[in-house]
UniProtKB/TrEMBL annotation:
InterPro entries: MethylDNA_cys_MeTrfase_AS, MethylDNA_cys_MeTrfase_DNA-bd, MethylDNA_cys_MeTrfase_DNAb, MethylG_MeTrfase_N, MGMT_N_sf, WH-like_DNA-bd_sf. It catalyses: a 4-O-methyl-thymidine in DNA + L-cysteinyl-[protein] = a thymidine in DNA + S-methyl-L-cysteinyl-[protein]; a 6-O-methyl-2'-deoxyguanosine in DNA + L-cysteinyl-[protein] = S-methyl-L-cysteinyl-[protein] + a 2'-deoxyguanosine in DNA. Residues 105-182 form the Methylated-DNA-[protein]-cysteine S-methyltransferase DNA binding domain. This is Methylated-DNA--protein-cysteine methyltransferase. It comes from the Eukaryota. Its cofactor is Zn(2+). One of its GO terms (molecular function) is DNA binding. One of its GO terms (cellular component) is nucleoplasm. The gene is Mgmt. Keywords: DNA damage, DNA repair, DNA-binding, Metal-binding, Methyltransferase, Nucleus, Phosphoprotein, Transferase, Zinc. It comes from Rhabdornis inornatus. CDD domains: ATase.
Amino acid sequence: QVNSKQGGSPCKEKHVVLLSPVGKIEISGCETGVHEIKLPKMSVLPAGAESSVTCEVCEGAEEMPEPLQQCTAWLRAYFCEPATTGTLPVPAFHHPLLQRDSFTRQVLWTLLNDVKFGEAVSYKQLAHLAGNSRAARAVGGAMRSNPIPIIIPCHRVIRSSGDSGNYGGGQLLKEWLLSHEKLQKQKLA
């Protein structure tokens, strides 16, 4: 349960499951915003990172609050028609981490706004963009605590060596997302 600011009453949390090319993505949220996106743990990569036509809500489609509708629309576009994600509204977020002022929040917002589809940034570069070039480790911590992966694209943060680095959804998923973006970007070029 997430408590809302007004009077501390808990939100009416709704859950949606999106069947995506990388497996079932669980999304939770309320009228105010998206609480969390849970990625599937992958042990095998889906064949090819080309955009897929299969991206459907398979649970929770009825009575979806607007932030969850926007979230599922955004994720569907990300997997199926990546060129359109820029024209879609990013859903409101309603997670305590993204509401209180902190370096983690600063890092996540910077990542969301400044690191575009098909781009990658090192932990050090992101620390610099977020206003503290010596905080690469703190950036790693911020990536680990990101409650809204894919939309806040922590998969685009890689090591300075070019190695993909760790990812909450696992190494395979990170590499799949990066190659999906690279392929799609080449198609649009």
